[in-house]
Amino acid sequence: MDIVDVNGNTCPLLDRSGLTCPVLCVLDFKDCPKAIEPPTCASNEQLCDDGTCQKSCAAVVNPCLCGLASSDVAAAYKACPAYEKTVAVPSYDPSIKTEQLTFACAKEWGLVAANSTLEDGSGVPSWSAESTDQPMSWSDCPTPQEPELTFTENFCIAFYAILGAELVLYLLWHIYKSVRERHVSSLRQVCSQIPSSLTISKNSAAIASAGSEIQADTEKNSILVAEGKYSSISSISNDLPTIASAAELPEGMLLLRGFDNSYVGMSLYYLSLLSTAGWIVLLAIVVADYYGKVKGGIAYGLLANSNTSMAVFIFVWHLAAVWMVVVLACMSRLRNYFRIECPLSQAYVVQVEERQEEMIMMEGTQNRLTLLVNRIRESLVRKFDLNIVIGSCTAQHISPGDERVFIEYHCTRYVLSSAEGSRFQCHSFDLGNTHRALLAHRNGLTTQEARDRGFYIGKNFIRVIVPSFPVALLREFLSYIYLYQMMCMWVWFYFNYYKMALVQFSVIIASAFVKVAIRLHSEYKVKSLAEHNSQCRVKRDGKWSKLSTADLVPGDVVAVEAGMEIMCDGCVLQGEVVVDESSLTGEAMPVRKLPLKMDYMAFDAQQGTSKSYSVIAGTRVLQCTGSVMTSPSQSLPSLLSGKSFAEKSSSNGYNSAVADLVDEPETQILVTQTRTSTDKGKLIKRILFPVRYSFVFDEQLRVAVLFLLAYAGLGFALSIWLMGHDMTSWLYGVFVLAQTCQPLIPASLTIGQSVAAHRLRRQSIFCIDLPRTIMAGKVQVFCFDKTGTLTKEGLEYFAVQAIQKTSDGDNGSSCICAAQFLAEVPDMARLANVAQVGLAACHAVTVMDDQLIGNPVDVEQLRATDWEIKQGERDSELYLDTLISPFLESIDGSDKLCRQTIHVIKRFEFVHARQSMSVAVLDQATGHVHVFVKGSFERLKQMANAQSVPADYDTMTARWAREGCYVLALAHKDLGPVDDLATVTRMSREQIENGCDLVSLLLFRNKLKEDTASAIMELKGGDTRTVMITGDTALTGVYIARQCGMVSSTARVILGDIDRSSIEEAAEEPRLVWHDTADDSIVDDIDKLLFNEQRDIEEAEQKLGNVVSKRTPSVELAVTAAAFDYLVSTNNIRKYLLDIRIFARMTPQGKVECVQLHMERAVTAMCGDGGNDCGALRAAHVGIALSDSEASIVSPFSSSNRSIHSCVTLLREGRSGLATSIAGYKFLINYGTTMSMLEIVQFYFSVIVPQAVWIMIDSFITVGLCIAVTQAQTARKLAPSRPTARLIGAHTLASIWGQTAINYAFLYGMMGLLFRQSWFRCHEFDSRDIDTSLWWLLGDNYEAEVISLVCMFQFVNAAAVYNFGYRYRRAWITNYILAALYAGFIAIISILVLADPNRFSCMFRINCGNPDTLVDIGYSRPSWDISSYNNPAGHNVMPHKFRWTLWALCITNIVLCLIWEKLVVLGPVGRLAKKWWVGRRGDPKLQLKL
Question: Which domain range does residue 851 map to?
Answer without folding.
Answer: 796-1005
